Amino acid sequence: MEKTVLKIGELAARAGLTVRALHHYDSIGLLTPSARADSGYRLYNRDDVARLHHIQTLRRFGMSLADIATFLASPDAPFADIVAQQIAALGKQIEQATMLREQLTRLQQVLSNGGSPELSDWLQTLEKMDLYDKYFTREELKRLPFWQQDARRNAAWAALVAEVETLMAQGVPPDDTRAGELSERWMRTLQHDTAANPEFARRITVMLDREVKAQQQTRITPALKEYVSAAMAARKLRIYARYLDAGEMRTMRANSGKNQDEWMALIAGVHQHLEDGVAHDAPSAQALARRWMDLYMSQIGGDPATLAKIRAAHDQEPALLSGTWITPAMLDYIRISYATLA
Questions:
Q1: At 65, which helix (H) or strand (E)?
Q2: What's the burial of 252, exposed, middle or buried (CB within 10 Å: 0-12/13-18/19+)?
Q3: Average pLDDT value for residue range 60-81
Q4: Are 50 and 96 contained in the same domain?
Q5: Cα torsion at 13, 19, 21, 27 (round to 10°)?
């Protein structure tokens, strides 16, 4: 015949626990035996065993003893909700483990190639993981070449930064042709390493603006970024000068570099519309086209004749779009969407 009560040693043996653990559960009020023998032994009945089963189940879910006590104190608490929470927590743990595995795999590649990461390399890797996770999802990072630990890519960027630092230290102005050529290489490399996705480029720019650690790791300071941007603008203005008159060029120079954040957001928006296959006459596409044209016309002085010249320049000078994330397909999308407004 099955016993109706168990002594503490018997319950501990059957449950795979220690007597000391059951004493602790009793002392904190988590599992108090329903009775005691005349000799003072703790006696556990069927309800006590059932409660211990709940405790052990919740412990396996990763809940703390304090949380278990709170949960069991509310008899109407839905057990299914606890299970759902634990599933979500496990999903997060799996995601973090996957991220760590990917990072360790990249470091393993360095080691297999004969490299020997220093302590600073490991710390920078951890800092980089923390930084990028603020601005990109795990799926996005898989598509972002900039994120990958590639020795050649890292060396290429270090060389580019060093070249810009040298020109700045020598006092070479941004409108010098040497600065212009370097800025073109810089922007082409950045476009490639952001997977030609302007939204990725926009977020990396925001990260470099906000995060001191990112500036320290990359040596891309606000001053260096501003120099590259000014050099890129000067290079484009030299090309436009082949197509525009003196007055038009004065207007272009006066407005150069304005509204850069809004332009990047617009470019990202058009890129996403193309990716999603949004129709040209969709309200969102028309809103993008209207804002694009309003911003562009204000930048060039509002003269349709100037716009025609600039379009001719874009048709003849592919370099004007190099490193801008703007493609001919995007310009066509804007023109057609804008035309639907009429």
A1: helix 65-72
A2: buried
A3: 75
A4: no
A5: 140
Exposed, middle or buried by CB within 10 Å (0-12, 13-18, 19+), for 20?
exposed
CATH number at residue 10: 1.10.1660.10
Domain that holds residue 279: 254-342
Evaluate whether residue 259 is within a structural domain. Answer: yes
Q: Which two tokens stand for residue 209?
A: 């603006």
Phi-psi bin for 29: left (phi > 0), alpha (psi -120 to 50), beta?
left
CA atoms within 13 A on the CB side of 80: 0
Say whether both 285 and 327 belong to one domain. Answer: yes
Domain count across the chain: 4
Q: Which residues pair with 44 in a beta bridge?
A: 6
Per-residue pLDDT tens digits for 179-216: 999 999 999 999 988 889 999 999 988 988 888 888 88
DSSP secondary structure letters along 269-325 = HHHHHHHHT--TTSHHHHHHHHHHHHHHHHHHTS-HHHHHHHHHHHHH-GGGTTTSS
